[in-house]
Design a protein that fits this description.
Strand content: under 5%
Distance between the termini: 18 Å
Largest sheet: none
Number of helices: 19
Helix content: over 70%
Structural class: mainly alpha
Length: 451
Amino acid sequence: MSPPIAPVGWSRWLVPPAALSIHLSIGQAYAWSVFKPPLEDALGLSGTQSALPFQLGIVMLGLSAAFGGTLVERRGPRWAMTVALVCFSSGFLLSALGAATGQFWLIVLGYGFVGGIGLGIGYISPVSTLIKWFPDRPGMATGIAIMGFGGGALIASPWSAQMLESFGGDNSGIALAFLVHGLVYAVFMLLGVALVRVPRPRVEERTDGRPATPAGPQVSARQALRTPQFWLLWVVLCMNVTAGIGILEKAAPMITDFFADTSTPVSVTAAAGFVALLSAANMAGRIGWSSASDLIGRKNIYRVYLGAGTLMYALIALVGSSSKPLFVLCALVILSFYGGGFATIPAYLKDLFGTYQVGAIHGRLLTAWSTAGVLGPLIVNWIADRQEEAGKHGADLYGTSLFIMMALLAVGFVANELVRPVHPSHHLDAAPAQPAEKGAPRARRQRAESA
Protein backbone atom coordinates (compact mmCIF):
# COMPACT_ATOMS: atom_id res chain seq x y z
CA MET A 1 0.00 0.00 0.00
CA SER A 2 1.64 3.24 -1.19
CA PRO A 3 1.59 6.25 1.13
CA PRO A 4 -1.29 8.49 -0.05
CA ILE A 5 0.29 11.71 -1.33
CA ALA A 6 -1.84 14.83 -0.92
CA PRO A 7 -3.05 16.48 -4.14
CA VAL A 8 -2.25 20.10 -4.82
CA GLY A 9 -4.34 22.35 -2.58
CA TRP A 10 -4.99 19.68 0.07
CA SER A 11 -5.49 21.32 3.47
CA ARG A 12 -3.15 20.09 6.18
CA TRP A 13 -5.93 20.70 8.71
CA LEU A 14 -7.68 17.57 7.40
CA VAL A 15 -4.89 15.39 8.78
CA PRO A 16 -5.48 15.97 12.55
CA PRO A 17 -9.12 14.74 12.28
CA ALA A 18 -7.82 11.59 10.56
CA ALA A 19 -5.41 11.04 13.44
CA LEU A 20 -8.15 11.80 15.97
CA SER A 21 -10.43 9.11 14.54
CA ILE A 22 -7.74 6.53 15.29
CA HIS A 23 -6.75 7.81 18.72
CA LEU A 24 -10.31 8.39 19.94
CA SER A 25 -11.04 4.75 19.03
CA ILE A 26 -8.02 3.07 20.58
CA GLY A 27 -8.37 5.36 23.63
CA GLN A 28 -11.23 3.03 24.57
CA ALA A 29 -8.57 0.95 26.31
CA TYR A 30 -8.75 3.28 29.34
CA ALA A 31 -12.44 2.33 29.72
CA TRP A 32 -11.78 -1.41 30.08
CA SER A 33 -12.80 -1.27 33.75
CA VAL A 34 -16.44 -0.95 32.62
CA PHE A 35 -16.31 -4.59 31.43
CA LYS A 36 -14.63 -5.95 34.56
CA PRO A 37 -17.62 -6.39 36.93
CA PRO A 38 -19.93 -8.12 34.39
CA LEU A 39 -17.09 -10.36 33.22
CA GLU A 40 -16.27 -11.34 36.80
CA ASP A 41 -19.94 -12.20 37.47
CA ALA A 42 -20.57 -14.00 34.17
CA LEU A 43 -17.34 -16.03 34.00
CA GLY A 44 -16.53 -16.35 37.71
CA LEU A 45 -13.28 -14.38 37.48
CA SER A 46 -11.27 -12.65 40.18
CA GLY A 47 -10.32 -8.99 39.91
CA THR A 48 -6.76 -9.94 38.98
CA GLN A 49 -7.98 -12.25 36.21
CA SER A 50 -10.38 -9.73 34.72
CA ALA A 51 -7.51 -7.19 34.48
CA LEU A 52 -5.45 -9.55 32.27
CA PRO A 53 -6.85 -8.39 28.88
CA PHE A 54 -6.07 -4.73 29.73
CA GLN A 55 -2.61 -5.49 31.11
CA LEU A 56 -1.65 -7.60 28.10
CA GLY A 57 -3.04 -4.89 25.81
CA ILE A 58 -0.77 -2.22 27.36
CA VAL A 59 2.25 -4.54 27.16
CA MET A 60 1.50 -5.28 23.49
CA LEU A 61 1.03 -1.54 22.87
CA GLY A 62 4.62 -0.87 23.92
CA LEU A 63 6.06 -3.93 22.17
CA SER A 64 4.25 -3.45 18.85
CA ALA A 65 5.12 0.26 18.80
CA ALA A 66 8.76 -0.55 19.52
CA PHE A 67 9.16 -3.40 17.01
CA GLY A 68 6.73 -2.14 14.35
CA GLY A 69 7.83 1.47 14.29
CA THR A 70 10.31 1.12 11.43
CA LEU A 71 7.73 -0.77 9.34
CA VAL A 72 5.16 1.95 10.02
CA GLU A 73 7.67 4.57 8.90
CA ARG A 74 8.40 2.65 5.70
CA ARG A 75 4.82 1.73 4.72
CA GLY A 76 3.19 5.03 5.67
CA PRO A 77 0.23 6.14 7.80
CA ARG A 78 -2.56 4.59 5.71
CA TRP A 79 -1.03 1.12 5.95
CA ALA A 80 -0.47 1.57 9.68
CA MET A 81 -4.00 2.82 10.30
CA THR A 82 -5.41 -0.13 8.33
CA VAL A 83 -3.40 -2.59 10.42
CA ALA A 84 -4.59 -0.83 13.58
CA LEU A 85 -8.21 -0.99 12.38
CA VAL A 86 -8.03 -4.70 11.55
CA CYS A 87 -6.28 -5.68 14.79
CA PHE A 88 -8.32 -3.47 17.14
CA SER A 89 -11.67 -4.48 15.65
CA SER A 90 -10.70 -8.16 15.34
CA GLY A 91 -9.75 -8.08 19.00
CA PHE A 92 -13.30 -7.11 19.92
CA LEU A 93 -14.78 -9.75 17.59
CA LEU A 94 -12.60 -12.48 19.13
CA SER A 95 -13.63 -11.24 22.57
CA ALA A 96 -17.27 -11.46 21.53
CA LEU A 97 -16.73 -15.09 20.56
CA GLY A 98 -14.98 -15.72 23.87
CA ALA A 99 -17.81 -14.17 25.89
CA ALA A 100 -20.49 -16.06 23.94
CA THR A 101 -18.76 -19.42 24.45
CA GLY A 102 -17.54 -18.72 27.99
CA GLN A 103 -13.87 -19.02 26.94
CA PHE A 104 -11.98 -16.29 28.82
CA TRP A 105 -8.70 -17.14 27.10
CA LEU A 106 -10.25 -15.96 23.83
CA ILE A 107 -10.97 -12.57 25.42
CA VAL A 108 -7.37 -12.33 26.64
CA LEU A 109 -6.09 -13.31 23.19
CA GLY A 110 -8.50 -11.02 21.36
CA TYR A 111 -8.61 -7.82 23.43
CA GLY A 112 -5.14 -8.18 24.96
CA PHE A 113 -2.88 -9.65 22.28
CA VAL A 114 -4.53 -8.90 18.92
CA GLY A 115 -6.19 -5.66 20.05
CA GLY A 116 -2.98 -4.60 21.83
CA ILE A 117 -1.09 -4.76 18.53
CA GLY A 118 -3.74 -2.43 17.11
CA LEU A 119 -3.19 -0.09 20.06
CA GLY A 120 0.55 0.17 19.47
CA ILE A 121 0.50 0.51 15.68
CA GLY A 122 -2.46 2.91 15.83
CA TYR A 123 -0.81 5.07 18.50
CA ILE A 124 2.30 5.81 16.41
CA SER A 125 0.60 5.75 12.98
CA PRO A 126 -0.06 9.51 12.59
CA VAL A 127 2.89 10.96 14.55
CA SER A 128 5.49 11.20 11.80
CA THR A 129 2.91 12.42 9.26
CA LEU A 130 1.62 15.17 11.54
CA ILE A 131 5.14 16.43 12.25
CA LYS A 132 5.85 16.60 8.51
CA TRP A 133 2.62 18.51 7.88
CA PHE A 134 3.20 20.93 10.77
CA PRO A 135 6.97 21.56 10.96
CA ASP A 136 6.19 25.02 12.37
CA ARG A 137 3.96 23.67 15.20
CA PRO A 138 4.85 20.01 15.84
CA GLY A 139 3.85 20.16 19.52
CA MET A 140 0.36 21.39 18.75
CA ALA A 141 -0.12 18.87 15.92
CA THR A 142 0.85 15.80 17.91
CA GLY A 143 -1.02 17.20 20.90
CA ILE A 144 -4.27 17.20 18.92
CA ALA A 145 -3.88 13.55 17.97
CA ILE A 146 -2.64 12.23 21.29
CA MET A 147 -5.37 14.22 23.06
CA GLY A 148 -7.74 11.78 21.39
CA PHE A 149 -6.18 8.83 23.20
CA GLY A 150 -6.79 10.57 26.51
CA GLY A 151 -10.35 11.48 25.55
CA GLY A 152 -11.34 8.10 24.13
CA ALA A 153 -12.34 6.78 27.53
CA LEU A 154 -14.59 9.78 28.19
CA ILE A 155 -16.69 8.66 25.22
CA ALA A 156 -16.30 4.91 25.59
CA SER A 157 -16.98 4.65 29.32
CA PRO A 158 -20.62 5.89 29.38
CA TRP A 159 -21.28 4.36 25.95
CA SER A 160 -20.09 0.90 27.03
CA ALA A 161 -21.92 1.13 30.36
CA GLN A 162 -25.18 2.05 28.64
CA MET A 163 -24.72 -0.81 26.18
CA LEU A 164 -24.18 -3.37 28.94
CA GLU A 165 -27.24 -2.05 30.75
CA SER A 166 -29.35 -2.44 27.60
CA PHE A 167 -27.97 -5.83 26.48
CA GLY A 168 -27.53 -7.29 29.96
CA GLY A 169 -24.45 -8.34 31.91
CA ASP A 170 -24.64 -12.07 31.11
CA ASN A 171 -22.53 -13.88 28.51
CA SER A 172 -24.74 -13.01 25.55
CA GLY A 173 -25.08 -9.37 26.60
CA ILE A 174 -21.30 -8.94 26.97
CA ALA A 175 -20.72 -10.72 23.65
CA LEU A 176 -23.17 -8.43 21.88
CA ALA A 177 -21.51 -5.35 23.43
CA PHE A 178 -18.08 -6.53 22.24
CA LEU A 179 -19.49 -7.18 18.75
CA VAL A 180 -21.01 -3.69 18.48
CA HIS A 181 -17.75 -2.13 19.71
CA GLY A 182 -15.75 -3.98 17.04
CA LEU A 183 -18.05 -2.97 14.19
CA VAL A 184 -18.55 0.66 15.22
CA TYR A 185 -14.85 1.29 15.85
CA ALA A 186 -14.03 -0.31 12.46
CA VAL A 187 -16.29 2.20 10.69
CA PHE A 188 -14.98 5.16 12.71
CA MET A 189 -11.32 4.25 12.14
CA LEU A 190 -12.04 3.79 8.43
CA LEU A 191 -12.66 7.54 8.26
CA GLY A 192 -9.08 8.14 9.31
CA VAL A 193 -7.75 5.61 6.80
CA ALA A 194 -9.65 7.35 3.99
CA LEU A 195 -8.71 10.89 5.05
CA VAL A 196 -5.02 10.67 5.86
CA ARG A 197 -2.47 12.03 3.34
CA VAL A 198 1.28 12.57 3.41
CA PRO A 199 2.67 15.90 2.15
CA ARG A 200 3.94 16.11 -1.42
CA PRO A 201 7.73 15.61 -1.67
CA ARG A 202 9.60 18.83 -2.04
CA VAL A 203 11.62 19.33 -5.22
CA GLU A 204 14.90 18.93 -3.42
CA GLU A 205 13.83 15.65 -1.78
CA ARG A 206 14.56 12.25 -3.27
CA THR A 207 11.78 9.85 -4.21
CA ASP A 208 12.70 7.44 -1.40
CA GLY A 209 11.68 10.10 1.13
CA ARG A 210 15.18 10.79 2.45
CA PRO A 211 16.32 14.38 2.11
CA ALA A 212 19.22 15.01 -0.27
CA THR A 213 20.41 17.85 1.92
CA PRO A 214 19.16 17.32 5.46
CA ALA A 215 17.78 20.40 7.12
CA GLY A 216 18.88 19.94 10.70
CA PRO A 217 19.64 16.58 12.31
CA GLN A 218 18.41 13.42 10.58
CA VAL A 219 19.02 10.24 12.58
CA SER A 220 17.79 6.71 11.86
CA ALA A 221 15.82 4.78 14.47
CA ARG A 222 18.58 2.22 14.93
CA GLN A 223 21.23 4.88 15.33
CA ALA A 224 19.06 6.82 17.78
CA LEU A 225 19.26 3.87 20.20
CA ARG A 226 23.03 4.43 20.33
CA THR A 227 22.74 8.01 21.52
CA PRO A 228 22.53 9.11 25.18
CA GLN A 229 19.75 11.52 24.18
CA PHE A 230 17.35 8.65 23.43
CA TRP A 231 17.92 6.99 26.81
CA LEU A 232 17.75 10.28 28.70
CA LEU A 233 14.35 10.96 27.13
CA TRP A 234 13.35 7.36 27.95
CA VAL A 235 14.07 8.12 31.62
CA VAL A 236 12.25 11.48 31.41
CA LEU A 237 9.11 9.90 29.94
CA CYS A 238 9.18 6.90 32.29
CA MET A 239 9.51 9.07 35.41
CA ASN A 240 6.79 11.52 34.34
CA VAL A 241 4.36 8.72 33.41
CA THR A 242 5.09 6.73 36.58
CA ALA A 243 4.22 9.75 38.72
CA GLY A 244 1.01 10.48 36.85
CA ILE A 245 -0.29 6.96 36.46
CA GLY A 246 0.29 6.31 40.16
CA ILE A 247 -2.45 8.85 40.96
CA LEU A 248 -4.65 8.00 37.96
CA GLU A 249 -4.89 4.29 38.77
CA LYS A 250 -5.65 4.88 42.48
CA ALA A 251 -7.57 8.15 42.20
CA ALA A 252 -10.96 7.22 43.63
CA PRO A 253 -9.77 5.31 46.74
CA MET A 254 -6.98 7.85 47.30
CA ILE A 255 -9.25 10.89 47.63
CA THR A 256 -11.69 8.84 49.72
CA ASP A 257 -8.93 7.73 52.12
CA PHE A 258 -7.39 11.20 52.37
CA PHE A 259 -10.60 12.71 53.77
CA ALA A 260 -12.13 9.63 55.44
CA ASP A 261 -11.48 10.95 58.96
CA THR A 262 -12.75 14.47 58.34
CA SER A 263 -16.18 15.94 59.01
CA THR A 264 -16.90 15.95 55.25
CA PRO A 265 -15.81 12.58 53.81
CA VAL A 266 -15.83 12.07 50.05
CA SER A 267 -18.81 10.10 48.72
CA VAL A 268 -18.57 7.42 46.03
CA THR A 269 -20.29 9.74 43.56
CA ALA A 270 -17.90 12.59 44.33
CA ALA A 271 -14.92 10.24 43.94
CA ALA A 272 -16.21 9.20 40.52
CA GLY A 273 -16.55 12.87 39.59
CA PHE A 274 -12.95 13.43 40.71
CA VAL A 275 -11.81 10.63 38.36
CA ALA A 276 -13.69 12.25 35.48
CA LEU A 277 -12.02 15.59 36.27
CA LEU A 278 -8.62 13.92 36.17
CA SER A 279 -9.40 12.46 32.72
CA ALA A 280 -10.39 15.92 31.49
CA ALA A 281 -7.15 17.40 32.86
CA ASN A 282 -5.18 14.59 31.23
CA MET A 283 -6.81 15.38 27.87
CA ALA A 284 -6.51 19.17 28.19
CA GLY A 285 -2.84 18.89 29.14
CA ARG A 286 -2.10 16.99 25.94
CA ILE A 287 -3.16 19.83 23.67
CA GLY A 288 -2.46 22.77 26.00
CA TRP A 289 1.03 21.98 27.25
CA SER A 290 2.26 20.50 23.95
CA SER A 291 1.13 23.65 22.14
CA ALA A 292 2.95 25.76 24.75
CA SER A 293 6.11 23.78 24.00
CA ASP A 294 6.12 25.29 20.49
CA LEU A 295 6.53 28.69 22.15
CA ILE A 296 8.87 28.05 25.09
CA GLY A 297 10.77 24.99 23.86
CA ARG A 298 10.67 21.30 24.65
CA LYS A 299 13.34 21.30 27.35
CA ASN A 300 11.68 24.16 29.21
CA ILE A 301 8.24 22.54 29.15
CA TYR A 302 9.66 19.34 30.66
CA ARG A 303 11.30 21.48 33.35
CA VAL A 304 7.75 22.61 34.17
CA TYR A 305 6.31 19.06 34.09
CA LEU A 306 9.00 17.63 36.32
CA GLY A 307 9.84 20.61 38.55
CA ALA A 308 6.32 21.89 39.18
CA GLY A 309 5.11 18.28 39.35
CA THR A 310 7.47 17.66 42.27
CA LEU A 311 6.07 20.75 44.00
CA MET A 312 2.49 19.52 43.48
CA TYR A 313 3.34 16.14 45.02
CA ALA A 314 5.00 17.90 47.97
CA LEU A 315 1.86 19.97 48.59
CA ILE A 316 -0.35 16.87 48.54
CA ALA A 317 1.99 15.00 50.89
CA LEU A 318 2.41 17.82 53.39
CA VAL A 319 -0.92 19.69 53.46
CA GLY A 320 -3.20 17.85 51.02
CA SER A 321 -5.34 16.23 53.72
CA SER A 322 -6.24 19.62 55.19
CA SER A 323 -7.89 21.08 52.09
CA LYS A 324 -9.98 19.34 49.44
CA PRO A 325 -9.66 22.17 46.89
CA LEU A 326 -5.87 22.12 47.25
CA PHE A 327 -5.76 18.32 46.90
CA VAL A 328 -7.96 18.38 43.79
CA LEU A 329 -6.07 21.30 42.22
CA CYS A 330 -2.67 19.65 42.70
CA ALA A 331 -3.93 16.32 41.32
CA LEU A 332 -5.40 18.06 38.26
CA VAL A 333 -2.11 19.84 37.56
CA ILE A 334 -0.16 16.57 37.91
CA LEU A 335 -2.51 14.80 35.47
CA SER A 336 -2.26 17.67 33.00
CA PHE A 337 1.54 17.25 33.15
CA TYR A 338 1.07 13.50 32.66
CA GLY A 339 -0.89 14.06 29.45
CA GLY A 340 1.38 16.89 28.34
CA GLY A 341 4.41 14.63 28.68
CA PHE A 342 2.90 12.09 26.31
CA ALA A 343 1.94 14.69 23.72
CA THR A 344 5.19 16.68 23.78
CA ILE A 345 7.63 13.79 23.47
CA PRO A 346 7.20 13.30 19.66
CA ALA A 347 8.12 16.96 19.05
CA TYR A 348 11.10 16.63 21.43
CA LEU A 349 12.25 13.61 19.40
CA LYS A 350 11.80 15.57 16.18
CA ASP A 351 13.96 18.40 17.55
CA LEU A 352 16.77 16.00 18.44
CA PHE A 353 16.60 13.33 15.73
CA GLY A 354 14.79 15.04 12.82
CA THR A 355 11.79 13.80 10.88
CA TYR A 356 13.46 10.93 8.98
CA GLN A 357 12.28 8.08 11.26
CA VAL A 358 10.74 9.99 14.14
CA GLY A 359 7.71 7.67 14.21
CA ALA A 360 9.90 4.61 14.63
CA ILE A 361 11.99 6.32 17.32
CA HIS A 362 8.78 7.31 19.10
CA GLY A 363 7.62 3.70 18.98
CA ARG A 364 10.81 2.48 20.65
CA LEU A 365 10.52 5.17 23.32
CA LEU A 366 7.03 3.96 24.26
CA THR A 367 8.63 1.00 26.05
CA ALA A 368 9.08 3.61 28.79
CA TRP A 369 5.27 3.77 29.01
CA SER A 370 4.99 0.00 29.38
CA THR A 371 7.55 0.10 32.18
CA ALA A 372 5.82 3.01 33.93
CA GLY A 373 2.43 1.33 33.54
CA VAL A 374 3.68 -1.48 35.77
CA LEU A 375 5.91 0.62 38.04
CA GLY A 376 3.47 3.42 39.05
CA PRO A 377 0.50 1.32 40.20
CA LEU A 378 2.84 -1.22 41.79
CA ILE A 379 4.52 1.43 43.97
CA VAL A 380 1.27 3.04 45.13
CA ASN A 381 -0.72 -0.17 45.69
CA TRP A 382 2.06 -2.22 47.30
CA ILE A 383 3.01 0.51 49.77
CA ALA A 384 -0.65 1.26 50.61
CA ASP A 385 -1.24 -2.44 51.33
CA ARG A 386 1.84 -2.63 53.58
CA GLN A 387 0.82 0.54 55.46
CA GLU A 388 -2.68 -0.84 55.97
CA GLU A 389 -1.24 -4.08 57.35
CA ALA A 390 0.80 -1.93 59.75
CA GLY A 391 -2.41 -0.42 61.11
CA LYS A 392 -2.25 2.94 59.34
CA HIS A 393 -5.18 4.53 57.57
CA GLY A 394 -6.30 7.66 55.72
CA ALA A 395 -3.63 9.88 54.16
CA ASP A 396 -0.91 7.91 55.97
CA LEU A 397 -1.40 5.08 53.47
CA TYR A 398 0.10 7.22 50.71
CA GLY A 399 2.79 9.37 52.35
CA THR A 400 5.72 7.12 51.42
CA SER A 401 4.44 6.67 47.85
CA LEU A 402 4.17 10.43 47.37
CA PHE A 403 7.76 11.01 48.47
CA ILE A 404 8.94 8.22 46.13
CA MET A 405 7.10 9.92 43.26
CA MET A 406 8.86 13.20 44.11
CA ALA A 407 12.21 11.41 43.98
CA LEU A 408 11.35 9.85 40.59
CA LEU A 409 10.38 13.25 39.18
CA ALA A 410 13.68 14.66 40.45
CA VAL A 411 15.51 11.90 38.57
CA GLY A 412 13.56 12.82 35.43
CA PHE A 413 14.41 16.51 35.95
CA VAL A 414 18.14 15.73 36.08
CA ALA A 415 17.87 13.52 32.98
CA ASN A 416 16.16 16.35 31.10
CA GLU A 417 18.93 18.77 32.12
CA LEU A 418 21.53 16.39 30.66
CA VAL A 419 19.89 16.35 27.19
CA ARG A 420 22.12 17.97 24.56
CA PRO A 421 21.91 18.13 20.74
CA VAL A 422 22.79 14.84 19.04
CA HIS A 423 26.42 14.64 17.91
CA PRO A 424 26.72 15.15 14.13
CA SER A 425 28.52 11.79 13.82
CA HIS A 426 25.11 10.14 14.35
CA HIS A 427 23.41 12.14 11.59
CA LEU A 428 22.20 10.28 8.50
CA ASP A 429 24.48 11.95 5.93
CA ALA A 430 27.39 12.69 8.21
CA ALA A 431 30.69 12.55 6.37
CA PRO A 432 33.05 9.81 7.61
CA ALA A 433 35.47 11.19 10.11
CA GLN A 434 39.14 11.17 9.09
CA PRO A 435 40.38 9.35 11.05
CA ALA A 436 37.17 7.85 12.47
CA GLU A 437 36.56 8.51 16.10
CA LYS A 438 36.36 5.31 18.08
CA GLY A 439 32.74 4.19 18.29
CA ALA A 440 31.53 6.83 15.83
CA PRO A 441 29.35 5.52 13.00
CA ARG A 442 30.21 5.92 9.36
CA ALA A 443 27.59 7.36 7.07
CA ARG A 444 27.70 4.41 4.65
CA ARG A 445 27.23 1.93 7.45
CA GLN A 446 24.31 3.91 8.83
CA ARG A 447 22.57 4.08 5.46
CA ALA A 448 22.78 0.31 5.16
CA GLU A 449 21.27 -0.10 8.61
CA SER A 450 18.51 2.33 7.82
CA ALA A 451 17.48 0.71 4.55
